[in-house]
Design a protein that fits this description.
The protein is α+β, with helices and mostly antiparallel strands. It has helices spanning about 40-50, 60-65, 100-115, 125-145, 145-160, 160-165, 170-175, 180-190, 205-215, 265-275, 280-290, 320-335, 340-355, 360-370, 380-390, 390-400; strands spanning about 1-5, 10-15, 20-30, 70-75, 85-95, 120, 125, 195-200, 235-240, 245-255, 295-300, 305-315, 400-410, 415-419. The termini are far apart.
């Protein structure tokens, strides 16, 4: 059971389900994604998660979470599509007496982190700011030291559009931030972002609605946040040399299909045949039969209208890997894949949809996306669409693919970039 209550830019979604042993509360702030705000958004997830006025130390935070029967608290920056998002979540084991007291205390703790971060005279405390800045810079560097992540970031940055605005911020841009500028940006988000509050668990709808309205008294706002980015990216190839054990390639194809489109299930199922599942053509033909790569897969990015193909192998094999990928794309366009493979992919995809309904986090993600893109089918409708997809539907979707951007991070001793 799910009920939604919306008014003045605030949306309350209550999922009353008895099958989970935990209650989860998620507060999401969503606003249009802009490059100039990316560093502040990224650093805010560290600053806000560190502590708050009521729980000013990590020990105080842990003590309160222990009091809530070992609850978990997470604050993350999760941009997608054309939107930037800060996500606050707290999850705890359901009280044995099924009372609302624990739910109320969890909301109280979450509200403290949202409404009372560690400000000093209107700015984040210097001690918190500098510690979090160091953690953020280390986090960026650790990600970029991963060759696959670096390759994917390079492809996104050179493609353009929303995905280029979602890449990690430059450390130099991060260093321009101050405690005051981050506090000002957080106050902007508090008053201008779209707000979605989700509660999932064995809860009473009316009681929960009353508690949410009481504990999270956000000011009214009017905002429309675009999600999908309908654009054409850059035709570019970028090569970076790095001292790494194996080379990586990322290829970005435009799909002409976006989240909520009627044809999206055909593209997703076709991608299962092509590269996202263990039975896929990429895995069978490029990795297992030819032995060209150590890893290979493909992923649909529905809010961007992109199919991303990634592979890692020896430097001298990269050209053959790329050619094999393009040949298999052509096979998909021409319908040169077995009916048995399609049915295996269909079965695995439908099973994943069904199993997601038994995972609390997966439900929360699915419900949130449906709130943002109302044309997104629910689980039952999605299952029916997957079951109805025909071979020619997949051919049609793959026929619309256009290769735009290629990034390669290859084995080598010095950094070099060519376009």
């Amino acid at each position: 059971m799910m009920e939604t209550f919306s008014a003045e830019g605030r949306h309350i979604h209550i999922h009353s389900l008895s099958k989970f042993k935990t209650n989860t509360i998620v507060v999401s702030f969503l606003w249009p994604l802009r490059t100039e705000n990316t560093p502040a958004s990224y650093l805010l997830s560290y600053l806000l998660a560190d502590s708050c006025m009521k729980y000013p130390t990590k020990q105080a935070v842990l003590r309160q979470l222990d009091h809530l029967y070992g609850a978990s608290l997470n604050i993350t920056n999760e941009p997608f599509g054309c939107a930037d998002r800060l996500r606050f979540s707290i999850s705890g084991i359901e009280s044995f007496d099924h009372s609302t007291r624990q739910l109320e205390e969890m909301m109280d703790m979450l509200a403290e982190f949202i409404f009372r971060p560690r400000f000093e005279q209107g700015a984040f405390a210097d001690s918190v700011f500098h510690e979090c800045m160091d953690q953020a810079m280390i986090g960026i560097q650790e990600c970029l030291d991963d060759p696959f992540f670096l390759c994917a970031e390079t492809a996104s940055r050179n493609y353009g559009g929303a995905i280029s605005r979602r890449v990690l911020p430059e450390i130099s841009a991060l260093k321009t931030l101050t405690p005051q500028s981050c506090a000002e940006f957080w106050n902007y988000v508090l008053t201008h972002a779209r707000i979605d509050i989700q509660v999932l668990g064995n809860v009473d709808v009316e009681t929960t609605r009353r508690l949410v309205q009481e504990k999270f008294p956000f000011k009214p706002r009017s905002i429309r946040v675009p999600i999908s980015d309908v654009m054409h990216g850059n035709d570019r190839e970028v090569v970076i040399e790095k001292d790494i054990p194996q080379s990586h390639i990322v290829m970005l194809f435009e799909t002409a299909c976006h989240a909520g489109d009627e044809d999206m299930p055909a593209l997703l199922l076709g991608n299962g045949v092509f590269g996202s599942l263990p039975v896929s053509l990429l895995f069978q033909k490029v990795r297992e039969e030819k032995g060209l790569c150590y890893s290979i897969d493909s992923r649909v990015m529905p809010f961007d209208g992109i199919l991303r193909v990634s592979a890692a192998g020896r430097r001298e094999a990269i050209d053959e890997i790329r050619t094999s990928i393009l040949n298999l794309i052509e096979d998909m366009k021409q319908g040169r894949f077995e009916a048995e493979l399609l049915e295996a992919a269909r079965k695995m995809t439908v099973n994943s949809v069904r199993s997601a309904q038994d995972i609390a986090d997966a439900l929360l993600v699915a419900y949130y996306r449906r709130a943002l893109v109302p044309t997104t089918p629910d689980f039952d409708a999605l299952t029916k669409r997957y079951q109805a997809v025909k071979k020619e539907d997949i051919q049609k979707r793959f026929a619309a693919l256009t290769l735009r951007t290629v990034a390669i991070v290859q084995q080598g001793g010095t950094a070099d970039e060519t376009e």
